Amino acid sequence: MQLPYEVFIGLRYLRAKRRNRTISFNTLISIAGVTIGVAALIATLGIMTGFKEDLQAKILGTNSHIIVTSKTGEHLMNSEALTNTVATVPDVVAATPFIFKQVLLTSDNGSAGVVLRGIDVRRETTVTDIARNLKIGTLDELERFAPPRTDLRVSPPAAPPSGALTPEMPSGDTPLLPGIIIGKELSLRLGAFVGDRVNVVSPVGRISAMGMIPKIRSFRVAGIFESGMFEYDSSLAFISIAQAQEFFNLGKTITGIEVKVADIFAADRIAARIEETLGFPYWARDWMKMNRNLFSALKLEKFMMFVLLVLVVVVASFNIVSTLTMIVVEKHREIAILKAMGATGQVVTRIFMLNGLVIGVVGTVIGIPLGYSFCWAIQTFFTLPGDVYYLSRIPVNIKILDVLVVGLSAITITFLATIHPCRQAARLDPAEALRYE
Q: Is 380 exposed, middle or buried (0-12, 13-18, 19+ CB in 10 A)?
């Protein structure tokens, strides 16, 4: 099939004559600029998407997809019936009750304010990944009573003074303590490890003549988890839901219900369905609403990085403008002859627009695999110190949609860069151009 003569002439203009290699060199520089801009955009968006999804996986590994609580802040009654009702909602995979309280955790070496979560040991694994995040111990240890570790104690602790607050514990020479699971960073802060005794202090206790007295109970560290999120590893602890109900005097009530769904990106619609099923005063919040600030910041950061790196392609488009302008200046005689032979301004415009599109398409086609190569090299050879960062390698995830947006943006910018040189060539007067030839 024979190509239109506009295509033949346009491709020929991109090559310089032997006596002048300037245009050919400028063409290569323009292609290189577009290539580097496209590769940088793909690599940056792939890394930012990888970080976002890695952070998302860590958040959803410790928390459930949906949390059902009361809008009035009251505890929920009939936990079993309520959990079974939530589990029957379409697209709900599993549901389990939980208790959520803020307490003070103390040990012989320090103290820290933490969030204490009471969980159903049998059903928690169907909703979150806390069992997989455990580095030491098992969830079953939460329901087992055992004595605290005594191999590091030289002598028994001295008796407290009369009237002092003392931790609640079973009577006997060797107290049997229920288990508690704490985060790795919290363990290091408290100096408490598996088998050690820690005290849970609740600000809400019995009321006496002196006012409200905090409630204290001793637990045995039964496990240590590491989620990869410093916020969770340093301020989260787990006990069994039965122990939480007894310690906080909740009876059979609970704080809420954790829900796992089949599609995490449809969690908002499923949450609305749960609210519709349960009615007032139940409140279902999905993970996107509960972490809206964090993911909104990540989304905005990704968009701003895209805008900033598009400027690299814009700078490359300036090279395209200068290259096409030089072609118009050098080829003014040929353009005049074409117009004298009957070529219209639209034909001349298509010739030079084709030049700009060729530069943009070639730069984009080379830049896409180059961006993938950058990401592969970063993920393969670049490592991070594990004692400083929560991961050892930079996560990368390149989305096809991002690649399409980058490619279309680069081609569009290079196409717009051809407008001024094309108009300049189309307005060329043949008589004026050939007057001194």
A: exposed
